[in-house]
Amino acid sequence: MASFNPAIDFNMPLSGAVKQNILPWTWMFNPTGSQIGLININLGHSSEPEVEQRILDRVGSYGRQIGQIGDALGVLLNHLDRAALTPAEQQVLDKLEEQLDKIAYIKREYRNELRAARALPEPASA
């Protein structure tokens, strides 16, 4: 699995839809111990950065981990008896469900766009 994976969108003029994941943290900073010349780069505070890196490499990105936690929370929310919740507690769960619904919508939308793009015939070469 890839480690921290920020997607940076950058299109050159007349280049069309160019997308590439750029991982400057792994190819720039790791080989030099997070220091370039006199500049120190701190990418976060972790008590065990080596363990954190292994988790990212072997388990999945933060987005994948959070997504799976969200999926599990969705299952629990579907089986939760909300009668005993206060209005404030219900509001917290409503906000979470709204976020989970938006994420599911974006994922479906993206997958549909991919399917539609694959279904298009190839342009005829001149």
How do the strands of the widest beta sheet line up side by side? 1-2
Distance between the termini: 40 Å
Query: In which range does the helix fraction lie?
Result: 40-55%
Q: What are the low-pLDDT stretches, counting only 5+ consecutive residues below 50?
A: none
Computed over alpha carbons, the radius of gyration is: 21 Å
Shape: flat
Main sheet makeup: 2 strands, antiparallel
Order of helices and strands: EEHEEHHH
- Structure classification: mainly alpha
> Total number of β-strand segments?
4
What's the number of helices?
Answer: 4
Strand content: 5-15%
What's the average pLDDT?
77
Structure, described:
There is one protein chain. With 126 residues, the protein is mostly helical. It is built from four helices and four strands. The protein has helices spanning 24-29, 49-58, 62-78, 87-119; strands spanning 7-9, 19-21, 35-36, 39-40. The strands form two sheets. It has a two-stranded antiparallel sheet with strand order 1-2. The chain has a two-stranded antiparallel ribbon with strand order 3-4. The protein is flat and about 65 Å long.
Helix-strand blueprint:
Elements: E1 7-9, E2 19-21, H1 24-29, E3 35-36, E4 39-40, H2 49-58, H3 62-78, H4 87-119
Antiparallel strand pairs: 1-2, 3-4
Keywords:
126 residues, mainly alpha, 4 helices, 4 strands
Briefly characterize the structure.
With 126 residues, the protein is mainly α. 52% of the residues lie in helices and 8% in strands. It has a two-stranded antiparallel sheet with strand order 1-2.
